[in-house]
Amino acid sequence: MITDARVLQTEFVPKDLVHRDNELTTLSAALKPLTNGEPGETTLLHGPPGVGKTCTTQYILNQLHENVIDLNTQYVNCWKDHTQFQTLYRILEGIDQTLDIHRQSTPTDKLRDRLHNYDGPPYIVVLDEADQLETTDVLYNIYRTPNIEMVLIANQEADLFSRLDTRLKSRLQTITRIHYKPYRSGEIVSILEDRVHWGLEPDTVTRDQLERIAVASKGDSRVAIGVLRRAARLASQDNERAISDEYIDEAVPEAKTEIKQKNVEKLTEDQRILYDILTEEGEISAGRLYESYRDRADEPKTRRMMRYYLKKMQHYNLVVANGENRGRTYNTSS
Question: Taking the model in full, what pTM does it have?
Answer without folding.
Answer: 0.91
